[in-house]
Design brief:
The structure is a single chain. The chain is mainly beta. It has one domain: GroES chaperonin (10 Kd Chaperonin, Protein Cpn10, Chain O), CATH 2.30.33. The protein contains no helices and six strands. It is globular, with a radius of gyration of 14 Å.
Length: 88
Amino acid sequence: MSVPITPLADYIVAVAEEAATKTASGLFLPEAAKEKPKTAKIVAVGKSVHELKVGEKIIYKSYSTTELKLSGVEYILVKEEDVLATVK
């Protein structure tokens, strides 16, 4: 995937995962009931990022992101310090 964004310093560019469209029991959720995703896959990292790598799945603070859409893809920009954990 070619990323049209180059993050600076300790910023990370990631692609947020889609919100669930139905519950575990199979009920479909209305648009208003869907929570924003809090997990994403890293697609680019700034030069000052030390602990994270491209391709890792992360859990991040959802209130501390910048969201943007380029070429039909929704990206998030998040600082390394706002990443809470990686998911294996």
